[in-house]
Each structure stands twice: as C-alpha cells, then as structure tokens.
Design goal:
5-stranded mixed beta sheet; 10 helices; globular; binds zinc ion
Length: 294
C-alpha cells in the first residue's frame, strides 16, 4: 500500500497540515492561524506537523507536499528537508496546487488541458497541458493574476498596472463597491457583497460584474493561447455564484471567438475546503505523471 503524503497548506490566514492517502482521503487534519511575523511561521508549521505525525502514530511518508501563499519557498523547503531527512519535499504556490487538486479529484478530473484559477485575497492559477504540470522557469507558470487586462487600470501588488489581480482580487472588488456607494457593515466582505448583488443592489452587482468580466476576458485570452479544454475557478470570490459567473461567461463568449474555443468549459471548483491540502499531496502522489510524462 502506498504511504500517505504529509500535506501542508500555508495560507495567508491559516496554516493546515494533514495526511493525504493515495486516493485523496484527508486524515488527521490540523489547522492554526498563520502567524503574522514571518519568523514565527516555521515554528508554527513544525508544531502543526508534529501534531499530525504524532496523532497518526508516526507513519512512513511517501513525501511532503506544500501549498504556499505569499511566503518565500526556499527556507521552508530547506527547513522541512532538514527535519525530515530522506523524504522528498515538493513546494508550489497555491494556484498551482489548486489546479492539480482540481485535476486529480475535482471538476478537472479527466481533462488534459486545464487552467485552475483561484480568486480570493489574491488571484492565482496553475496550468496543466497534455496532462503535464507546466512549471515555467521558476515553478510559477499559470500566474494568471498578473496578466494585464486594463493598461490604464489600477496598480497591482506586483507593481504592474491593470493586472487582473488588481481588479478582481476579493478585497479590491469590495473596495470598488464601497467607493461607488455600496453601504455595508464595517467588516463586510466578499460574501456580503455577493448577497447584496443577489438581492438586487446595483452597485454590488456592478462590482462583481466588473470582476467577472475581467476574469472572463483573461480566460478568453488564455484559452486562445493555450487551446484549453477547461478552466476551473475557485477561491472566496468564486463562491459568489451567478452574480460573478454570469458576467464572466458572457465575457468569455464575447471575447473567445477562435473556432477551437467553442469547446471551452468554465466550471466552479469541485474540490471544496481541502483543495490546498489535496493539491499539495498531488504534487507527490501524482508527481510522476505531472513531471515525467507517465
Ligand atoms: Zn500584478
């Protein structure tokens, strides 16, 4: 029997670890808040990992997979390799892990040419073409959030102008709505904005339509470039439902006009809350298929 993978999901707000079996079953999951200070991150990670390994009775591990959002990869990987000698550690950003999770067990199961997109506090993504995970030069291929959608648009966290992320990341969509008169309680965020839009609020609807349209335009461009079968969209803002996906699909229809684009499907995430852990585990469990063409 194949040993489980120790999977870690290092997010901006939470830190999760679990064992993930070869069939994707997640067990012994633990979760803590992500420490604010980068120096405290590794200690918190070690605590969570040791807890999972102890709960599980120190099982043999197939490897360690890490889904990473917004942190430097190298010290994390080296630290894990030092603590778990002889065990392969694979680290990719959360967008890549989302894409492989959807490809393995979610909406992208069975699709050979897939773009996974995460629209949350950032906009990320990962690419699978001909069944292979596309890494690019530094393992960051698929970073669709930094594709330019409006050359005179807002400034992005990367320093660029008019990136998709600057327009469609959840907090920016909420900020746009507030700037245009959407009135909501102090901490109201993406779920409240989506509820407002569904209730017919015109500003909330316009904010999500703007984001959905921008996402749709970028999907159309990506599909024209890469001849994709499928785009799977997940992340917090994607839970808005039709108020986001309606304008998104209309933009894809309007802008993706090449004949081979007609077959493109755009689906909402099918993998649920454990996507980061499942994707991190897939880096190891499915590594041979993704990187060796098997
Ligand atoms: Zn950018």
């Amino acid at each position: 029997m194949t040993s489980p993978v120790l999977a870690l999901d290092v997010g901006g707000t939470k830190l999760s670890a679990a064992l993930v079996a070869a069939d994707g079953e997640v067990t012994f999951a633990r979760r803590v808040p992500t420490p604010a200070a980068a120096e405290a991150l590794f200690a918190a990670l070690v605590d969570v990992v040791d807890g999972v390994i102890c709960d599980a009775g120190s099982p043999a591990l197939q490897g360690i997979g890490v889904s990473l959002a917004g942190w430097d990869e190298l010290p994390l990987r080296e630290g894990l390799e030092e603590r778990h000698p002889g065990i392969a550690v694979r680290v990719r950003n959360e967008g890549v892990c989302f894409a492989v999770a959807e490809h393995w067990l979610g909406a992208g199961s069975g699709s050979a040419n897939l773009l996974g997109m995460l629209i949350g506090s950032d906009v990320g993504g990962g690419l699978i073409l001909d069944g292979r995970l596309i890494d690019g030069g530094t393992g960051n291929a698929g970073q669709i959030g930094h594709v330019v959608v409006d050359p005179v648009g807002p400034v992005c966290s990367c320093g660029g102008i008019g990136c998709l992320q600057a327009i469609a990341r959840g907090p920016n969509v909420v900020a746009w709505a507030r700037d245009h008169g959407w009135v909501a309680a102090g901490s109201a965020a993406e779920p409240e904005l989506a509820a407002s839009a569904r209730a017919g609020d015109p500003v909330a609807s316009a904010a999500l339509a703007l984001a959905g349209t921008a996402v749709g335009i970028v999907i159309a461009s990506a599909a024209a470039l890469l001849d994709l079968d499928l785009v799977v969209v997940g992340g917090g803002l994607a839970e808005s439902g039709d108020v986001l996906f309606g304008p998104l699909r209309r933009a894809v229809e309007r802008h993706l006009c090449v004949p081979y684009g007609k077959r493109l499907e755009v689906l909402a995430s099918g993998i649920g809350a454990h996507a980061g852990l499942v994707g991190a585990a897939a880096l190891v469990h499915r590594g041979d298929a993704y990187w060796s063409g098997g």
